[in-house]
Amino acid sequence: MKNSEIILCSGIKLDKNYENVLSYNESSMVSLCRNNSIYRGNKYAIIERDNTINISARYEDCIYANYMAFINPRYGDKWFFAWITDVKLLNPSTTQISFKIDVFSTWYSRFNIGKAFIEREHVSDDTIGLHTVPENLETGDYVISSYIEREIDGIQNQGYIVIGLSKLVEGFPSPSENVYNGIFSGLTYYILEDYQKARDFINALMETWGYDAESSIYCLYMIPRELITYSDIQWSTGSIGSNTVSFGVVPASYAPKSLNSDLTFSKGDKIDNYTPVNNKCFVFPYNYCYVTNNSGSSATYNFEDFLDGDAHFSVIGSIAVGASIRLDAIKYKNGFYNPDDQSTLLDNRRLKNYGLTCGKFPTCSWNSDSFTNWLTTNAVNIGLKGLASIGQAAVGATTGNLEGVISGATNIAGTVAEVYQHSLMPNQVEGNINSSDVLFSSNSLGFSLYRMTIKKEYCKIIDSYFSRFGYRVNEVKTPNLNSRTKFNFIKVGGMDELVSGNIPATDLEEINRIFRKGVTIFHNYSDIGNYTISNPIVTP
Questions:
Q1: Strand-strand pairing, 20-22 and 519-522
Q2: N or C: which end of the chain has fewer CB within 10 A?
Q3: Which CA distances in Å does 521 have to 110, 115, 351, 359, 457?
Q4: pTM above the 0.90 mark?
Q5: Which tens digits make up the pLDDT trace of 431-474?
C-alpha cells in the first residue's frame, strides 16, 4: 500500500476513558509511537465497518501491543491513533487487530477552541483574591493561625475617672458650652486623674452637699487615658467646702479621637503552618479574619476584600458613659474608592457598616437610688432603641404594613418591661460587675483579631484537589489549554461545545463530551498520570 505505515506500540499510558490526554500534535504523537513500537510495517488492510485491521505479522509479535498509529489511505497521509482492544490469530502470517480510535489525539491538531461555560480549569493568574467562587468543600474545624490584641488602656494604666454632675460646683471652671462629641449635655463632666483624687472629690461632695450629692451625681465611669490627650485637659485645683481637690475639665466641643488610623493584620503566608501551592487556599472560607470585642460581639472579614490583601482597621473613641470606642474596617470591599471618582482612593475611609463597638468601660459605684442611676447611665441606649422602634412603627403605619406596627410596638414594650424590672430593685450600692469589668481588670478590654484557618490536614487535602482539578470558575470564556507547564484540567459545563474544526461529526461530538466530563491535558508524555508534579503557570 503506497504511503502506508502501521506502528504497534506497547506500554502507552493513555486511557480509553480520556481521564488523561496529551497536547501533542500529529508529528509528536507519531514520534511517541515510534519510540514505543514493537512492530512496524506497511502491509495491512483496514476493515472500517468492524474497526479492525488485518496485518501481515505474526501473532506473537502483536499480542503485547496496546496502542497503534496508522495511515488511512482514505484521508491521504493523515495519521490515526487508536487503542488496541483485541488481537486475533487469523493464520500463521496474518493477525487481526481490533481497535478504538483515540479521537482526542487523532484530531487535536485540528481543534478550534471557542468560548464555552467553563466550570473548572487551571487558571493562568493565581493572584490571591482573584478567584473566590465557592468550592463547597469540607473545611473541618478552624484553628487560630495568628492573632493580635488591640487592648484599650486598662487597669495597668489606671484609666481616668469621669464624674457627671447636674449641679455646678461653686467656683469651679466649666466648659463654655456643654457639648461633648457634638452632643449637648445638661451635665458638666470633670476628669479625675487617679483613684485617690476620685475618692477625695466624691467625699468632698458628700460632706459638703449632703443628700443633694446623691441626686447631683448622675454618672461616674472610667475612660482609657488614650481617649483624651493629657494636654487637652484643663487641669485645676479647687475647694469643695473645706476640702481642696484636684480635677480636670473636659474641653468644650471635644471631638472623637482616632486611636488607630490604620491597624493592619496580615493574611499570613501559611495555613496552620502549611504552605499551600494554590493561592485560593488563602481566601475565605479557608483563611479569614475574625474580630471580637470579647464582650459578645464579633464579625468576620475576608482578607481578599481588602485593598492589598491584608486586613486594615481604624479605631476611634469618644468620651461617654462606659467610653464609646469603635473599630471599623478601612480599605475594604471597594469602600476605599471615591464614589464620585473611581480613580481616587480614600484609603482610610471608615466603613461603619463593617465595624464593632468595644465593650463598655466600668461604671463606678456610688451610693444612691439604683433605678435613677441605671436609667441615667443607659439613657442613650434606651433612646436609640426607642427611636428605632418608633421609626419602624411609623414606617409600618404609613406603608400599611400592619406587621411593622406590631413589631415596632413590641420592641417598645420590651424596653418598658426592662425599665419596670429595674424599678423593682431596692436601693443598693450602684455599679455592675460584668464581662467588660472583668476584661478591664485583667487589662484585656479591647479588640482581638484572629486569623482563622482550616487545619493543616484539610488544607493539604484541598490544596491537592486544586492542584489536580484547578479552580471552579463558572465563567463563559475561552480556556487556555496550555497555561501550565505540566498539565491543564478543563471541565465544560452544561451541553456547551468548546471545540470545532475540520473533524468528522461523530468524533467531534465525542471530543466535546470529553471536555464536558472533564479532562486532564498533559504536555509531556513522561509526566502523564503524575498529579503531584510541580505545575507552575507558564510565564509569557
A1: parallel
A2: C
A3: 16, 18, 46, 56, 28
A4: no
A5: 333 456 666 665 667 899 999 999 999 999 999 999 999 999 99
